[in-house]
């Protein structure tokens, strides 16, 4: 008997499992948006410890809601590397939140990479204090399948994809659709529609 039907069944099963996992992540993420207020009042970029924990949980959901299997050669890797050019409280909070939590069948590893590239990085975290110095890096990787997430407003202007802010005592996020398009990453459309502001034009950054 041909092995093709068996292969197709396995492929279909993997697709179903991925869809179920993403649906569960979206439900959990939606509940978090509704039920996780943080300390504070009006919009701010400040990041007390409680805010960072919530932002770290957001980042973990962002990672889970990317279809990594669509990235060429990704099936060959058992680790999903999350990087930062500089160590920060934001990077440390995400690392703590992700401890022991896989993405599909891959474990998340964390690296400090002053010059991250597609061979050693799949997610780049940038703290607001480092936005200016990260502009060159963002320009160098803008056409690469690397998810870029910033802590505070302003990363989108430099070519980033997601930026986390606090408004009305809740962590929210803005998205640059053009930056995602340039990267070639398949990000859940439902996740994008949960954003506070979905920027559809510029800045990729040109």
In short:
The protein is an alpha/beta fold and 206 residues long.
Descriptive overview:
With 206 residues, this protein is α/β, with parallel strands linked by helices. Helices cover 39% and strands 18% of the residues. It is built from 6 helices and 7 strands; from the N terminus they run ααβαββαβββααβ. It has helices at residues 4-35, 49-64, 89-98, 131-141, 177-183, 189-193; strands at 79-84, 107-112, 123-127, 147-151, 162-167, 170-176, 197-199. A 7-stranded mixed sheet has the order 2-1-3-4-5-6-7, with helices on both faces. β1 (79-84), α3 (89-98) and β2 (107-112) form a beta-alpha-beta unit. α2 (49-64) crosses α3 (89-98). The N and C termini lie far apart (54 Å). Residues 7-21 and 39-44 have low confidence and may be disordered.
Key attributes of the depicted protein:
seven-stranded mixed sheet, globular, single chain, 206 residues, alpha/beta, 7 strands, 6 helices
Count of DSSP-assigned helices: 6
Spatial order of strands in the largest sheet: 2-1-3-4-5-6-7
What is the overall shape?
globular
Question: Termini separation (Å)?
Answer: 54 Å
Quantity of strands, as a count: 7
Mean of pLDDT: 83
Question: How helix-rich are the residues, as a percent range?
Answer: 25-40%
Relative strand content:
15-25%
Low-confidence stretches: 7-21, 39-44
Structural class label: alpha/beta
Following the backbone from N to C, one meets helices and strands in this order, namely HHEHEEHEEEHHE
Radius of gyration, in angstroms, nearest whole number = 17 Å
Main sheet: strands, sense, barrel: 7 strands, mixed
């Amino acid at each position: 008997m041909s092995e093709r039907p068996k292969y197709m069944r396995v492929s279909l099963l993997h697709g179903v499992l991925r869809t179920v996992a993403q649906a569960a992540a979206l439900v959990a993420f939606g509940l978090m948006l509704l039920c996780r207020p943080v300390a504070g009042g009006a919009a701010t970029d400040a990041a007390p410890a409680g805010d960072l924990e919530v932002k770290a949980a957001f980042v973990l959901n962002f990672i889970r809601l990317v279809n990594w299997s669509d990235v060429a050669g990704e099936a060959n890797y058992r680790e999903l590397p999350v990087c930062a050019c500089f160590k920060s409280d934001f990077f440390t909070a995400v690392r703590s939140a992700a401890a022991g939590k896989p993405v599909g069948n891959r474990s998340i590893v964390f690296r400090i990479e002053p010059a991250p590239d597609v061979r050693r990085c799949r997610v780049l975290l940038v703290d607001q204090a480092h936005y200016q110095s990260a502009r060159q890096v963002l320009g160098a990787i803008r056409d690469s399948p690397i998810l870029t997430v910033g802590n505070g407003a302003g990363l989108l202007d430099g070519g980033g994809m997601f930026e986390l802010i606090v408004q009305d005592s809740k962590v929210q996020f803005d998205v640059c659709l053009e930056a995602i398009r340039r990267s070639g990453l398949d990000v859940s459309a439902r996740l994008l529609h949960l954003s506070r502001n979905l920027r559809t034009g510029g800045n990729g950054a040109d």
